[in-house]
Amino acid sequence: MLAHEELTLLIKSKYPLIFVESIDEEYVVNELRQIAGQMGLILYQWSITTGLRRGHQINPYYQTNDPEKMIRTAFSLHPDGSESGLFVLIDFDKHLENTIVLRLFKDWLNRVKNTKNTIILIGPQCNLPKDIEPEAGHIVGGYPNEKEIASILKETFNDLIRNVKGTVSLSLEEMQRMIKALKGLSGQQIRNVVNQAFIEDHRLDIRDLETIESCKRKIFDQEGLLEFSMTETRENIANFDNLKHWLNDRTDSFVSESNALPPPRGVLLMGVQGCGKSLAVKVVAKELGLPLYRLDIGRLYSQYIGQTEQNLRKALKTVDQLSPLCLWIDEIEKGFAASFGETDGGVSQRVLGTFLTWMQERKSSCFLAATANDVHRLPPEFLRKGRFDEIFFVDLPDQKTRESLFRIHLKKRGLDPQGFDLRGMAEKAVDFSGAEIEQAIISALYRTTSRKVPVTTDHILEQIRATKPLASLKDEEISNLREWARERTIPA
Ligand SMILES: Nc1ncnc2c1ncn2[C@@H]1O[C@H](COP(=O)(O)OP(=O)(O)O)[C@@H](O)[C@H]1O
Ligand SMILES: [Mg+2]
Which of 22, 53, 117, 167 has minimal CB crowding within 10 Å? Predict the structure, then answer.
């Protein structure tokens, strides 16, 4: 449902209080202004900087910057019920921590009940006191949808052409792609991004999609927890045959909406370090045709102590808004380690709970791709049936896979694999992970480049001999891991 319809419905249902969770105040206020017009209500608007203002009037009511005075003023506005209004308060929930303001606010709420007045709070997060919360209608989102993005774009284009001069040339199909790329941003962010792309060369065409996407990435990086990530084609990963087969059957599920089957929900890749789990996630996103975003759980703890759950909720909401997408959580056991709980007052337990609930209940088409190295630190909840569609086990590469690893990584560095003894190198690289094979090639290249000679099989063999693979040090750990995986997972 559009934010507009949802809001109208809540106002008509005579909720005394509605909380709109949105970072895009401007957009929400605009919607509310239209709704007020349609319903014959007066729009009152308040923020700590502007005070309380009526309709389009510029001057606020006297001294209403002060929350307490504002409520007292609002109280006196229509004692006879001759007029009704929408009272739109921005970032007001913080002030409810003050006991006097809270008391006054409750009185105001009681008065508003059973009238046509509605109090509407807008803020990035709903933090209502417990005793008020049950009275409030609640809307999450309030970001422009595709139709609204289209109209913001048209407005912005017109403005630009009129004021800055230049051209916009986009076909209908290109326009559609641009709209998709702008999803998840606020109205103001959309205008900024488009302006930026236009100003560079006074032209806006499909080539600007790149600028737009990189701006969008920056915006998300600023917000911290979600990070846009590049994807990878399946030719660049050795083995993972079962995962590839699994994906073959599902590649169209996010593209064709007519598909009667529910889209896949997620996979967990677990196993030996350096064997391509993270890389495989990039392939998964590519194959499913989804943009890939990484959720940095580690940062969640370090950056925002005390607000961990709220920030996770916010990030997950962004995920829902950006969907369809592939959400990547790397080394999931680090973020949700089973042993954290005793030392941090239960924060990590609650974070885990929040995440599991989201996993269970999400309706958005978000594909979850998680990796894990250490099964013993992984909370068992993740392994229950239904949490992931499949758990794949990633083992050390066998002979054939090692050969492909050499082939892929030689090619990646502009070398022709035909000039090398792939089989011979692979035979000597028993117990090597993919990362170690790659490293052997890189080290050989450093050696030979500094000596100004072309790299050969022998140079690489030399590096292989000089390497003690991690797996040989962790022999027991890996056997345990295999043992564990045998009954619970399928080989990747
Ligand atoms: N199966 C593989 N195919 C191609 N490259 C691989 C493979 N496994 C590992 N690599 C190389 O090693 C690097 C590190 O692997 P990574 O995906 O980070 O491993 P993991 O997440 O399992 O620890 C990759 O970026 C890639 O260059
Ligand atoms: Mg990794």
Answer: 167
Say which range, 76-80, 211-215, 234-238, has the weakest mean pLDDT.
76-80
Domain that holds residue 405: 399-473
Contact yes or no for 289/251 (Cβ under 8 A): yes
Choice from 275, 374, 411 to test ligand 1 binding pocket (greatest atom count within 8 A of CB): 275
In 3D space, the residue among 232, 156, 236, 237 whose CA is nearest the CA of residue 196 turns out to be 156
Q: Nearest ligand, CA of residue 408?
A: 1
Given a cut of 90, whether residue 236 has pLDDT beyond it is yes
> Residues 361, 238: one domain?
yes
Predicted confidence (pLDDT) at residue 472 exceeds the cutoff of 60: yes
What is the tens place of the pLDDT at every residue in 267-314? 999 999 999 999 999 999 989 888 888 998 877 775 555 677 778 888
Nearest to 377 by CA among 331, 343, 342: 331
Res 224: pLDDT: 65
Distance, in Å, from the CA atom of 209 to the CA atom of 189, rounded to the nearest integer, reads 15
Q: Please give the helix or strand (H or E) that residue 206 lies within, else none.
A: none
Type of residue at 9: L
- Classify the phi-psi angles of 55: left when phi > 0, otherwise alpha if psi is within -120 to 50, otherwise beta: left
336 and 464 co-located in one domain: no
Distance 271 CA to ligand 2 centre (A): 10
Among the bound ligands, the one closest to the CA of 272:
1
Confidence bin at 1 (pLDDT 50/70/90):
very low
Q: Is the dihedral of CA 251, 359, 303, 23 positive or negative?
A: positive
Shared domain for 110 and 15, answered yes or no, is yes
Structure tokens at 313: 């909720």
